[in-house]
Design goal:
The protein has 16 helices and 15 strands.
């Protein structure tokens, strides 16, 4: 498995990059997952892009969940590094006294010089573009490539019982996300709405039937099953209450923009990650246009689908797929259970055996559940905003590594410069201090 070229080591005394040396990262180490932490302006998004580009260079496809809309810069790859490539992306208002052409020329030269300082050039960008495909998917919108999220209720192939655990997790992901869209907390045990819908989907899939939303709403009112557990369905969930649930869901379906949720490419993991020729893809799920509930719905569905696919694969110690999520805030919090939390924790616990790595990015370590922290083998720590963030970070590292020199880490974290990170890898003897290279996807 190839090394990822992340940048170069930094002298902890002078804070300067060590000439002639590089910081490399073994790709298979990401099967134990990773976390990038740093305040706004620390360079964490840039480091995330480096990890993704290095994965694609190595032939590893990437699934990118982008709640804030920053990861679309992956598509801004200009092999010629010509000013004309940059011009469409220059804000005329920001150019002020200079012309757009002049600013574009300066930008092109800046990137040419910056890449050269890391022994990179236009041909390296061209090689990346030839090696991988890049697509921006926009669930719930036609601004990019729309994604048929609701179509995920297509019946799976083969007997249900052969993959019952994985399929039930996928059903739970869909159900929790859908109910979240109408303001219903979908606890898998205590929520009648959750229990009913999950059982209806399982009933359909066990019988080889795909479900459309119209059929699902009809079944909610007139279920094809007579019991839920040991109770008759009318006792467990009376008809009037089921009608109320169906009306809420129908209001969602009747909303003007909901039809776009059923258009576009299928939510099929292999098709998202590889093209027809087997070339790895960067599938960017742009979610910035969605509400918090809609983002939860999409993230839950996509990761649930990834888990179902993952469990059909043979075991692997090499990194087979890299899933990246930018700005994880609100998706795996320590004190709540939003729909996306369950599949994220499942991946952190189980994906290693299948060669699937999960890389999470956040501004604040307090955004992450401690269970997530304990399952991450690599931590890249940039500048942190508050003493509370730093204390939480140090506590997490102590729980993961056990023999951390807290005083030394505290001192180093406090003085980190922009684009400089302290990397803790459980497979290394000691942390590495490095500055990340100028990634090849500029953000002019």
């Amino acid at each position: 498995m190839a090394d990822f070229y992340l940048g170069g080591p930094v002298d902890s005394t002078t804070g300067k990059r060590t000439p002639g040396q590089s910081t490399n990262y073994e790709a298979s180490d990401l099967t134990t997952h990773g976390v990038i932490v740093g305040m706004t302006g620390s360079g964490k998004t840039g480091l995330g892009i480096i990890y993704l580009e290095e994965a694609l260079r190595s032939g590893i496809p990437t699934l990118i969940l982008d709640p804030k809309g920053d990861m679309t810069n992956l598509l801004l790859t200009f092999p010629d590094l010509a000013p004309s490539d940059f011009e469409p992306w220059i804000d005329p208002a920001a150019a002020q006294a200079s012309s757009v052409a002049e600013v574009a020329a300066d930008m092109a030269q800046l990137w040419t010089n910056g890449l050269a300082s890391w022994d990179l050039a236009g041909p390296d960008i061209g090689a990346l573009r030839e090696r991988a495909g890049f697509t921006i998917y926009t669930p719930g919108s036609t601004a990019g490539v729309p994604l048929n999220v609701v179509g995920s209720l297509v019946a799976p192939e083969g007997p249900f019982d052969e993959r019952a655990e994985a399929l039930r997790d996928e059903i739970q992901g869909f159900t929790a996300g859908l109910l979240g869209m109408v303001g219903i907390e979908a606890d898998p045990i205590s929520s009648r709405e959750n229990v009913l819908i999950a059982n209806l989907i399982e009933y359909a899939w066990r019988n080889g039937e795909s479900l459309g939303m119209d059929t699902l709403l009809g079944w909610i009112q007139r279920p094809p099953i007579r019991k839920l557990g040991v109770f008759d369905i009318e006792a467990f969930f009376p008809a009037d209450d089921r009608l109320d649930l169906a009306m809420k869901l129908n209001g969602l379906l009747a909303s003007p923009g909901f039809s776009t949720w059923m258009d576009g490419a299928a939510l099929d993991i292999p098709s998202l990650l590889w093209d027809a020729e087997g070339r790895p893809q960067a599938a960017v799920m742009y979610l910035a246009h969605l509400s918090d509930e809609e983002r939860q719905f999409v993230v839950t569905l996509i990761l649930s689908k990834l888990i179902t696919w993952m469990r059909t694969q043979p075991g692997s110690g090499d990194l087979r797929v890299l899933a990246y999520m930018d700005e994880i805030f609100g998706f795996v919090p320590p004190t709540a259970n939003p729909p996306a939390k369950r599949p994220i924790l499942t991946l952190l616990k189980q994906a290693r055996a299948f060669g699937v790595g999960l890389l999470l990015s956040t501004q604040n370590p307090v955004d992450l559940d401690y269970k997530a922290m304990s399952n991450a083998g690599t931590w890249c720590i940039g500048r942190l905003q508050t003493e509370r963030d730093k204390a939480s970070m140090l506590q997490a590292l102590t729980s993961v590594s056990g023999d951390v020199d807290v005083a030394l880490l505290d001192d180093q974290i406090s003085g980190l410069a922009k684009r400089t990170f302290q990397m803790h890898n459980t497979r290394d003897r000691e942390p590495q201090l490095f500055t990340c290279l100028l990634y090849t996807s500029p953000s002019p």
